Amino acid sequence: MSGQCKSLRVLVKDWFGNGGRFKVTRADRSKTMSCRVVKVEVAHSSGTYALVFFRHNDGSWCVYPPPIVHPAMNWA
């Protein structure tokens, strides 16, 4: 695991703050990638906001997907 890994709960609070009530609306594995995907929504007076978090191979959670690794092809 990366030395800077934060829990998903800490990242959600970093992005949305402590004031909102959070709702996990989707938690599953990506069909195209072998990573964990979690969609978190929070309702504010100005509307509902959502972010999708991805769990990377090193165990870290990020709001962007991990890079897709394509197998190398050897034509020799």
What does this structure look like?
This protein is mostly beta strands. The chain has one domain. It contains one helix and four strands; from the N terminus they run αββββ. It has one helix spanning 8-16, and strands at 22-29, 36-44, 47-55, 61-62. A four-stranded antiparallel β-sheet has the order 1-2-3-4, with helices on one face. The radius of gyration is 16 Å and the shape is globular.
Strand order of the largest sheet: 1-2-3-4
Uncertain stretches of 5 or more adjacent residues: none
Beta-strand percentage?
35-45%
Specify the structural class.
mainly beta
Helix residue percentage: 10-25%
Order of helices and strands: HEEEE
Note the gap between the termini.
Answer: 36 Å
- How many helices does DSSP assign? 1
Integer tally of domains: 1
The counted number of beta strands is 4
Shape: globular
Q: Let me know the average pLDDT.
A: 75
Keywords: Plasmid
Helix and strand arrangement:
Elements: H1 8-16, E1 22-29, E2 36-44, E3 47-55, E4 61-62
Antiparallel strand pairs: 1-2, 2-3, 3-4
Keywords: Plasmid
